[in-house]
Amino acid sequence: MSKIYRYVVRVDKGFAPNPYNQFCTLACCKPKIRKGASPGDWVVGFANSSRGNSRLIYAMQVGEVMPLNEYFEDKRFRGRIDNIYYENNGELKQKKNKFHDEKDYETDVGGKNVLIAKDGMWWYFGNKAPDLIVEICNDDAKAKYSRVEAIDRLLFNGRNYMVNGLLGDEIGILYSYLMNNWPDGGKIGEPFDAPIHPKCG
Question: Average pLDDT, whole number, for the chain?
Answer without folding.
Answer: 88
